[in-house]
Design brief:
Strand order of the largest sheet: 1-3-2-5-4
CATH topology: Muramoyl-pentapeptide Carboxypeptidase, domain 2
Structural class: alpha+beta
Radius of gyration: 15 Å
Strand content: 15-25%
Largest sheet: 5 strands, antiparallel
Number of strands: 5
Shape: globular
Oligomer: single chain
Helix content: 25-40%
């Protein structure tokens, strides 16, 4: 089933963990509707901008799968509102900055990115209809000497002035 011009349901539900553990990773109607909105609001603009085909690393995760990968029960992946992705050949920081400047989102995280290693980490982005978009306060966290960078469009000025801190 196509969710948008370039993305399919199977791409946003595929999981090696689900396959290994025999978990049925099927979204309900609400999560399916959220995945369509997520594709049209985040993934399609990225695909069209870079002109490079890519398959998301992780999209929808049923609660059982989400628990199996060690994620929170409150993860937006469970509701079909979040996606993790990379664009081949493009620095993940550049992708995150492009999304920050050009898309509306609920949360944008450059996860496990190492400065100077363009293909390190991945971009996590969410879109929800349940709350304000692009409003969270930006946060920078440390995890085992690797940083996650949280962006909002309002943080562009601080990023440009102060960098990653």
């Amino acid at each position: 089933m196509k969710l948008s011009t370039h993305f399919s349901l199977s791409e946003l539900t595929k999981s090696e963990t689900a396959i290994r553990k025999g978990i049925e990773n099927e979204p309900n109607e609400e999560a399916l509707a959220n995945l369509i909105i997520l594709c049209r609001s985040i993934l399609e603009p990225v695909r069209e901008h870079y002109g490079i085909p890519f398959v998301p690393n992780s999209g929808f995760r049923c609660l059982e799968l989400n628990r199996a990968v060690g994620s929170s029960d409150k993860s937006q992946h469970v509701k079909g509102e979040a996606v993790d992705f990379e664009v081949p050949g493009i620095d993940n920081k550049d992708v995150a900055l492009w999304v920050m400047d050009n898309c509306q989102f609920d949360q944008l995280i450059l996860e496990f990115y190492k400065e100077g290693e363009p293909s390190s980490g991945w971009v996590h982005c969410s879109y929800t209809l349940d709350g304000p978009l692009s409003q969270p306060v930006p946060r920078i966290l440390s995890q085992n000497s690797v940083r996650d960078f949280y962006f909002t469009p309002q943080s562009v000025h601080d990023f440009l002035v102060y960098g990653f801190g």
